Amino acid sequence: MTSKMKSKKIIMEKTLEQKYLTEYIKSKKSKHHLFLERKRNINKRAKTIVDVPHPFLKWAGGKRQLISQFDKFFPSKFNKYIEPFVGGGAIFFYLLPNNAILIDNNEELINCYKVIQNNVLELIESLKKHRNEKDYYYRIRDLDRNPEEFNKLSDVERASRTIYLNRVCYNGLYRVNSKGQFNVPFGRYKNPKICDEENLLVVNKALKNVKIFKASFEKCLEFAEKGDFIYFDPPYQPISATAYFTSYTKDNFGKDSQMKLFEVFKECNERGCKVMLSNSYNKFILNCKW
Ligand SMILES: C[S@@+](CC[C@H](N)C(=O)[O-])C[C@H]1O[C@@H](n2cnc3c(N)ncnc32)[C@H](O)[C@@H]1O
Fold it and tell me: For the whole model, what pTM was predicted?
């Protein structure tokens, strides 16, 4: 190789290196960041408003704030996306997979997902009628104290109630007592956005081809196949006996449930799924040989 050829090769290598470096730095940005950039460019070109969906409920244990830390663990390619403890769906709304299965055993939560998927306009109309007033809040909250009356509500009315309570209650918390009754006090917000119409409409689009189930997490075994990505985000095992406890349903998620989850997780892994799980850092969980 002549010295001229050598220097040309070095320049080419440098250019390639630069290209890969730029791509590497770019990929270090969160995928969502890149997604948002892409969406913004589409907006500029098409001069239309294309919004990115986000969780429609504030949910205890929601992972929205942790996405930048989780991003590097998400597989870049997968077949189906399965989330057996979907809650507010922070990770689902971040990844926006084409083919997804969402599962949770909270009936009111899953009813909201289904109503947004199938009946979003009626839901929006219903949400617009709610009021941010203390007496009104307790009247709506306490509907579940009378099961006979509660069962007469339509799916849209129930979803509207859940979203309303979530927007107006103290700290946007979802918590029920041992009878399954919503028990969070009034929140005294000045101007809560009870009906986030724009977001509900984009969430409706995001849920278009999604399969949604009110079921326990084991349901995922009916669908889990090689190449699927499954993100498990169970209620955490309390760090100590006196740790603050949030109940999503009247059934607690105790040690037996954690052990069962451990088996389901192993089974999905053995089937060749890409599996990821969040839990608390304590002796019991660490002793499970994941
Ligand atoms: C930590 S939260 C999930 C939060 C979610 N990743 C988010 O970003 O909002 C746990 C969820 O598990 C649900 N859950 C509790 N027990 C369950 C069970 N046995 N099967 C399925 N879901 C369950 C709760 O209703 C709750 O929504």
Answer: 0.84
